[in-house]
């Protein structure tokens, strides 16, 4: 089905994909999404990903990939130029991003520069009226947003749209946009190795004050490791410094929508639920059967996290080895 | 140092979210409004700390109607020097950003600070839009900000880590957790804020690039399936066969 309301004179769509870490699931999601909105999909990217990797985006619907190797993601101002120039060069009136830390810096500026209405955090294709569903009130409700301008920008919330393979590889062209260097200088980059970034994680294991202290986080990390999950925590735990702030999920932390969210020792205050209720499946482990979190859960275990978690890890390990 | 902090009203974090019967707008009945936490805890408090160290003044600005004066007085009670309201019902992020940019133009602010997003619309749009409209550099999602000479050194969140960046003032910064700690206003501040003059200025005419046409609440989850704490194998099987997530 093609959405005529989103089509203007041409159905050329530009998709910005960040390929610094290869082809993420999110990059395949945005190309698949774009293909639902128009026929001709040009992907613009930057950095050093090899051509044979970039050409795989054709499988998800890209007609071609343009890559400007002189632009670094560190320079977000330059990235705005890159996307703006390539929108002009391709004649695209619709630009799609993944709703991530890059697009949060780039898309609002592009919206002003191109006078293009911006829908941030889309979770669906436009409906019959051309309105796009987004999360509002920190995940407690949905809003339907319509873009009034001819030019449109949509950033798609990761994990809300499944990638679909529909064809073969596409061509990759080197592109020199002439984007100007920005005024923000990067002094250093600190990236902890081996951690799965929380907003992109399919599986998340999280814990709260019920774990009694940071020294007890080993049982959370063990389960996360067995599952291949990211770790997260509730706000009080981040506030008292048991865990780093970037692990805090909830209304004032990160909002996530993994396939599976396992919460141990978290009561499920409304502010916490706001950050996680986009999860497809929620498992709650708590000693208190009256904990409000059980009302939002798909599966519940009433029991002590210190006993339940090691057993669950063991069961997961057993299951994983039976799968091999 | 002259700092502008953009604040927005937001429903209290414990509010039950409901919409009018035609689902066209948020039902404000019985809802307590607060200063959007990111604007207050991080942007405003860090701005006040910078003022205390470097001298200068902190102006807060909001786009809203007369009911928003409560949150403006809260910001004054915490320590802002001046409060400006652009007299317009808030529309989309673009309209809001253009209103603020119009005010900031020619005022030579060294720093314009916004919260990373509001807790009601979560768009994370206004800060970037103001920076583009004013032609200023923008640093998004900053969790640390230091000021020396005319240079800002910031830490900002990037995928899977933190980046340390440097930029000359003037600049626009969106502020995230870590930037400062919440401040509770004292009684003297609250009393003084009650009688302070608020500046009200008329809006400029700006189009809306987007509009919210309707709202909806997420479907209620069917009841939770309880699995015995002694049977984690069953839970794993349910997650694999029934939920199909592992």
Could you walk me through the main structural features you see in this protein, from its secondary elements to its overall organization?
Chain A is of the alpha/beta class and 324 residues long. Chain A folds into 2 domains: 4-174, Rossmann fold; 198-323, Rossmann fold (3-Layer(aba) Sandwich), CATH 3.40.50. Helices cover 28% and strands 24% of the residues of chain A. Chain A has 9 helices and 15 strands. In chain A, the strands form 3 sheets. A 7-stranded parallel β-sheet of chain A has the order 5-8-4-1-2-3-9, sandwiched between helices. In chain A, strand 6 (132-136) and strand 7 (141-147) form a beta hairpin. In chain A, helix 5 packs parallel to helix 9. The mean pLDDT of chain A is 92. Chain B is α/β, with parallel strands linked by helices. Chain B has one domain (2-216): Rossmann fold (3-Layer(aba) Sandwich). Chain B is 28% helix and 30% strand. The longest helix of chain B has 18 residues, at 37-54. The N and C termini of chain B lie far apart (54 Å). At the A-B interface, helix 3, helix 4, strand 5, strand 7 and strand 10 of A face helix 3, helix 4, strand 7, strand 8 and strand 9 of B.
């Amino acid at each position: 089905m093609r959405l005529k309301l989103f089509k203007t004179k041409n159905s050329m769509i530009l998709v910005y994909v960040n390929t610094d870490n290869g082809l993420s699931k999110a990059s395949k999601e945005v190309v698949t999404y774009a293909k639902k909105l128009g026929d001709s999909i040009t992907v613009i990217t930057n950095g050093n990903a090899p051509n044979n990797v970039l050409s795989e985006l054709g499988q998800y619907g890209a007609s071609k990939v343009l890559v400007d190797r002189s632009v670094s993601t560190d320079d977000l101002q330059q990235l705005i130029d890159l996307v703006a120039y390539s929108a002009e060069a391709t004649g695209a009136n619709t630009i799609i991003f993944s709703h991530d830390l890059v697009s949060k810096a780039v898309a609002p500026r592009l919206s002003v520069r191109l006078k293009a209405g911006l829908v941030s955090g889309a979770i669906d294709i436009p409906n019959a009226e051309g309105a796009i569903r987004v999360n509002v009130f920190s995940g407690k409700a949905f809003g339907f947003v319509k873009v009034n301008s001819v030019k449109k920008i949509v950033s798609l919330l990761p994990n809300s749209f499944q990638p679909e393979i529909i064809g073969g590889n596409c061509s990759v062209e080197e592109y020199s946009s002439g984007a100007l260097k920005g005024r923000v200088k990067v002094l250093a980059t600190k990236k902890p190795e081996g951690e799965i970034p929380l907003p992109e994680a399919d599986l998340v294991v999280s814990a709260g004050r019920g774990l009694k202290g940071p020294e007890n986080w080993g049982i959370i990390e063990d389960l996360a490791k067995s599952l291949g999950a990211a770790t997260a925590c509730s706000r009080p735990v981040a506030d008292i410094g048991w865990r780093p702030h970037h692990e805090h999920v909830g209304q004032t932390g990160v909002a996530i929508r993994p396939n599976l969210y396992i919460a141990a020792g978290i009561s499920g205050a409304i502010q916490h639920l706001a950050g996680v209720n986009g999860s497809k499946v929620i498992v709650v482990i708590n000693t208190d059967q009256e904990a409000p979190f059980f009302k939002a859960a798909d599966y519940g275990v009433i029991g002590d996290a210190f006993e339940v978690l090691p057993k669950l890890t063991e069961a997961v390990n057993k299951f994983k080895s039976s799968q091999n | 140092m002259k700092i502008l902090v953009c604040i927005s009203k937001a429903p209290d974090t414990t509010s039950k979210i409901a919409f009018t019967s035609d689902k066209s707008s948020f039902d404000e009945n019985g809802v307590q409004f607060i200063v959007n936490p990111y604007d207050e805890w991080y942007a405003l408090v860090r701005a006040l700390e910078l003022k205390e160290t470097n001298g200068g003044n902190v102006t807060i600005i909001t786009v809203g109607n007369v009911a928003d004066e409560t949150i403006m007085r809260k910001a004054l009670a915490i320590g802002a020097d001046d409060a400006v309201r652009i007299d317009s019902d808030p529309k989309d992020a673009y309209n809001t950003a253009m209103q603020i940019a119009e005010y900031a133009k020619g005022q030579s602010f060294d720093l314009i600070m916004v919260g990373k997003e509001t807790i009601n619309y979560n768009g994370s749009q206004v800060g970037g839009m103001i920076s583009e409209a004013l032609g200023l550099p923008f640093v998004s999602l900053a969790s640390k900000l230091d000021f020396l000479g005319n240079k800002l050194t910031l830490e900002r969140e990037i995928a899977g880590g933190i980046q340390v960046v440097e930029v000359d003032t003037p600049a626009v910064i969106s502020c995230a957790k870590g930037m400062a700690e919440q401040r509770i206003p004292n009684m003297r501040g609250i009393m003084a804020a009650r009688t302070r003059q608020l500046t009200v200025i008329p809006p400029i005419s700006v189009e809306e690039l987007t509009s919210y046409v309707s709202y909806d609440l997420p479907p209620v989850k069917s009841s939770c399936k309880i699995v015995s704490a002694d049977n984690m194998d069953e839970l794993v099987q349910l997650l694999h066969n029934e939920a199909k997530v592992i």
